[in-house]
Amino acid sequence: MALSKVQNTNSGLNLVPAEYAIQPYPQGMNYLIAGEIKTYPGNGIEVVSPIILREGEKAWGVTIGRYPELGKDEALQALAAAERAYGNGMGEWPQMRVEERIEALKSFAWRMRAMERKYALLEMWEIAKPFRLCLDEFKRTLKYLQDSIERLRELDQESSAVSRAENFIYQVRRCPLGICLCMGPFNYPLNETFAMLIPALLMGNTVILKPPRYGALCLIPFLEAFSESFPPGVVNVINGDGETIIGPIMDSGKVTILGFTGSSRVARILTDSYEGSHRLRTILGLEAKNPAFIFPDADLELAARECADGALEFNGQRCTALKHIWVHESLADRFLDLFTGEIDKLKCGMPWEDGVRITPLPETDKCKWLSELAEDALQKGAKVVNPGGGRVQDNLFHPAVLYPVNKEMKIHQVEQFGPLIPVSPFKGMEEVVDYLVSSDYGQQASVFTSSPDYAAPLIDILVNHVSRINLNAQCRRSPDELPFTGRKNSAEGTLSVTDALRSFSIRSLVVVNDQGKEVFFRTLESGRSKFLRI
Questions:
Q1: For the whole model, what pTM was predicted?
Q2: What structural domains does the chain harbor?
Q3: C-alpha to C-alpha distance for 501 and 102, rounded to whole angstroms
């Protein structure tokens, strides 16, 4: 039964364990501009959970709240607030010393900790992510914040050195860029968003944050913490239709950093509308079609486990998910037996259930689209090789393994972002190279082999097509200390604890020769400059 055909009510919540029950979130209509939490006076946009509750023949769709449908006026107010707070680099926030900004972030983290369960419960109902993964995302985000603070302290200490080049003396430090527009994805609305927000703030930028369409409610509990932790206008949070509120902000030409995770189509729309694009720094996380290559000498049991986990954690709704598996034709049948066996072990159900792995999909008509991709593959020669694969129950799509997939099928090219797994056989390295060269994406790849004879040549090919190679392991982002980026249409800019601090800042330096040495050192020793200091 499609979501649009079920009764929209909360009367079925008695079917939910009491600790996971939810009522409509009353603060969802709030937004933050210039340090003031405001309440949208209109009807707003209704948020209906993808979780469908059933009792016999009855089905319930659960309304969990509403969020503002702001317009151009509010968007430009948020922009003006961020602009005032930045003050052309002379505002209170960009002029703060590093330790002062760190203290503000620590204050925010202290307030944020109290929101853990509220956030996790809202996220679970809003995007049907397993509750344990919602808690993991929250904890990981706090760790990212703490690690970023420690790394910034190290960078600042390193920058305290006075260096010499030929007959010049200089000091280099990192400075903010300006106003950052931050737009995270629905699958990790907290972690992926804050992985941009935290370094942007630490480096002295001001921020306009627009939550994702799915996941718009679960960030609202942080408004009070933002308001109390930062000067007015440093963080502004607005909600609504992206085209309506983001278009005017980008058209203004006043944004200097775009941090965006989503589709390359939307990224092009955002950047194409920006005047003076040479002034815009972009940090983009876009589509990925991460392949796994399984060679004749691979440990098949290991490969099957890693591929099942890598393809289906949170329904495969991760840019880092394995989205196309290539297996050498000599062991395809054995691999498929093991792989489908691993998939059969995965529990499908509600996100509060212990051990659940496959949950309802939040995107409207996503099950229909995945079914269409599967049907296209079936018509062109593939089969669903796991029992029950592709069965749809409300918004839950049971994982389906398609084999053999060829390049005539849509699933061969597009990022499915869901529990539909294409598997293709290959004979030799030439087919692997052809696939890599023709692919529009280049984030990561997994290689399963026991021999350098296979690993070495493929590594040397892959490093020029993807940005991370995982040997005998699934694709992933962690640990956050490692660079996270991509080639082709998969990314622009690099994120990691250290790289993100650099991405959201620019190096500036004070340089003198003999004529300026005296004033250089006198200024340094005076302690009056926030930039030139020991």
A1: 0.94
A2: 3-285 (3.40.605.10), 290-488 (3.40.309.10)
A3: 13
